[in-house]
Amino acid sequence: PLYSLQIHNPISINYRMTEEAEGPTIVMDNGTSCFKAGKAGDELPQVTDMATYGSPVSNGQLANFEAAENMWENFYKKQGLQAFEHPLLCAEPLFAPKFVRERTTQILFEKFTVPALYSCPAPLLALYCAGRSNGVVVDM
What pLDDT, on a 0 to 100 scale, did the predictor assign at position 50? Predict the structure, then answer.
């Protein structure tokens, strides 16, 4: 697959495919204790899973990519969605290591063939959800 990489700031990377997607954007948050995913614009996530396949997260970072792949695959299957039809907004921890972002991106583009991917720090998404573009987010 063809994709370009644009670095907007040190913690936010935008990956874009050259083709247009047809379906609504999917929002995923791998979370520390549970996986949440759904369509952008919905009030609540359609799936909240307490890591049925083993937690892919360790010390707040995505560590078990095989478990993550199983969770993502299960989400798309349960929702009857085709990953290649929907852009993906993926919440990530504030200081996610570069190799985690790169591996996640590789899996999502090569295995799931998502048409577009935006990885965004979870605290920034919390601000956007509250209708703000700046502020203080306390994550406990």
Answer: 59
